[in-house]
Amino acid sequence: SQQGEEDPQALSIQEGENATMNCSYKTSINNLQWYRQNSGRGLVHLILIRSNEREKHSGRLRVTLDTSKKSSSLLITASRAADTASYFCATDASGSYIPTFGRGTSLIVHP
Amino acid sequence: NAGVTQTPKFQVLKTGQSMTLQCAQDMNHNSMYWYRQDPGMGLRLIYYSASEGTTDKGEVPNGYNVSRLNKREFSLRLESAAPSQTSVYFCASTSAGNQPQHFGDGTRLSIL
Questions:
Q1: A67 in reach of chain B (CB within 8 A)
Q2: Which end of chain B is least crowded, N or C, by CB within 10 Å?
Q3: Does A39 touch chain B if contact means CB atoms closer than 8 Å?
């Protein structure tokens, strides 16, 4: 069963626009991670945010975590065609450290 | 700097055949994982090995067996393949459970 669920399932934007995708989860967590998957490839880790953190940045990526709402968001600023991929959140429930992945958001960035 | 290597990349089997999927990592990671990815289902954990010498069931272990051969290698075996096992299989590794996972590029398995 999926612990984290991404929203929306699909997102289509123009190059230069910002892309925001969300992840909701059900139980208390240790960490929340975001991964990217290009077509035909394995997942690549983007950002890990711990339960006591509220925001992290990496280049054009910004991740927020709201433990009171059990949700996280991934913002990609000034998107590029190369950002076209599926994005997954993964959560590990408190005491587990085994990540559970959501179904992903498919992002298409049109040049 | 290979990271996580999976072999083979593609395979077609007939129902009832057996097969072993191989995974090796060169990052000296303690933990290794096998997932399957089906359309609309995300990744589901089949088995994992928290450390050399240990293996545990994940969410969907039925029909599979695993072997942690040494610290580098973690194999997944299908003893009697079924069409429901048609999927893309990913191996991943991490240094510790609270650290990012590194993934291979997957094995695309079709069972007829």
A1: no
A2: N
A3: no
